[in-house]
Design a protein that fits this description.
single chain, 125 residues, mainly alpha, flat, membrane
Length: 125
């Protein structure tokens, strides 16, 4: 189970990196804005942290009773939301241009999951 889970997570991460690089290249040609690219990078790194943390949460929750697992999963989810809020707050105070890039970078995780069958077909060959 853990090997399969690690393979799924690594496929999602590879997809996130490929999608983020594609968005960065397109944004350079359309409207070069270093703040957007920095935000995209920060959002993508935060998304990678999220998916890795979700994997660890699942592994630890499986060793607990159902009630303990539920509490642990909720606590871990709140921790991930707190990290997102902190990243957004820090980024807005440092560079306002990066906020759109951060939001796009965070959505890259979801896009990578939706496109996972396509990414997996290229990645596994």
């Amino acid at each position: 189970m853990i090997k399969h889970q690690d393979k799924v997570i690594s496929t999602i991460i590879v997809g996130m990196i490929l999608i983020s690089l594609s968005i960065a290249v397109i944004s350079i040609f359309i409207n070069y804005n270093i703040g957007f690219i920095i935000g995209l990078t920060i959002g993508t790194v935060t998304g990678v942290f999220q998916i890795m943390h979700i994997g660890k949460t699942i592994n630890k929750a499986l060793d607990k009773t159902p009630n303990q697992a539920k509490k642990y999963a909720v606590k871990s989810s709140m921790f991930r939301y707190l990290i997102i809020v902190l990243v957004v707050i820090v980024s807005v105070t440092i560079n306002r241009d990066s906020i759109i890039g951060i939001i796009v970078g965070l959505f890259v995780l979801k896009l990578s999951i939706y496109l996972m069958p396509l990414i997996k077909s290229f990645y596994s060959e």
